[in-house]
Design goal:
Radius of gyration: 22 Å
Structural class: alpha/beta
Strand content: 5-15%
Shape: globular
Number of helices: 11
CATH class of one domain: Alpha Beta
Largest sheet: 7 strands, mixed
CATH superfamily of one domain: Aspartate Aminotransferase, domain 1
Order of helices and strands: EHHEHEHEHEHEHEEHEEHEHEH
Helix content: 40-55%
Amino acid sequence: MQMRKKVVYLDYASLTPIDKRVERVVSEYVVLERAGKYANPSSIYGAGVEAKKVLEASRAGIANFLNAHVDEIIFTSGGTEANGLALEGTARVARRAGNKKPHIIISEIEHSSIIEIAAIMEKNGCEVTRLSVDHFGMVSLDELKKSIKQNTFMVSIMTANNEIGVIQPIREIAKIIRHARTNITKSMYPLFHTDAAQAALYYDLNAEKLGADLITLDSIKVYGPRGTGALYIKRGTPIEQIMYGGGQENGLRSGTENVAAAAGFAKALEVAAIEKEEESKRIVILRDYFIEQLKIRFSDLQVNGAYTKGDTEKRLVNNINVTLKNFDHEFFLLQLDARGVLCSTKSACLRDEDESYVIRALYKTTAQKTPQSLRFSLGRFTTKRNIDFALKMIDDILSV
């Protein structure tokens, strides 16, 4: 009989497995459906009302995670849709209010869903400023200040980068934007959106403290079900729908809601909130141990993005992005895969790209060619034994 190969998953930044506690919540709702107790949450008969109660309880759970109001949470199909609604939905209102050439500011290392929609908006008449980042992946607050203009309707800066794990100074950015509203635009603009999909497990996303008008969350990054996410929209934020139909989700996201997934998403965030502090302490120890061991094996190892041992403020505790000089990183990844260790060379959203635009941004002034990179991302089910197994497989590759 063929023995099952051991697999160590170190790609949590790409996709988190569904937590069993979340799975149970989703399964409970599925069981109800099989028993005939199912209905569209927009229906007014009894079963529909019950489905609506589950949906609204889930919305309240997500609002609680963000310290927000229940009516500030809009369910989406995931982080990509939430980002699209945040940018395009607010741009449409800005145009209607008389802003003939709406100006948006993003960073050059945003998630591809922000990068791509900004490019489309630019083709359709918007003005786009892409803030550069330094060698550590941090945006320049001075450059941001200089970039805000009278027609700036939006600043969108991600909380934490999905490839290099760098955490941006979101609260300081919010202060700059508030100052600009008072002294430059003398209006509610620019709005502030942050894609916090990668940060939810390890970073405090208290909406009031962050100071953002819109916040993106994604269930697949927090051990929740696939195909669901949420956009926090602060009360009074000018935004309109970009999908049309039945007018669900306060008229901002038409389409029958996935009640079971919403319930699972809320449970995933509930678990994350409870375990965040202890889990961060556990994971940062594993991260630092792994990096130190990699440095022993690769004397010229380069950690991409801001990194200091023990740091939890400037880099996500679960992120390890490294460059191994004189190695073909894609071949190295395939060798690891053959030995049961799963990691990545760049964001899964860049599957067809030859290189990572995030890594290119870090080294654009210091390297003639963009360095290759490997990303190991740890998670809830990662143990020291897993790390040691990965290190053993690396040793095996190096010995060949």
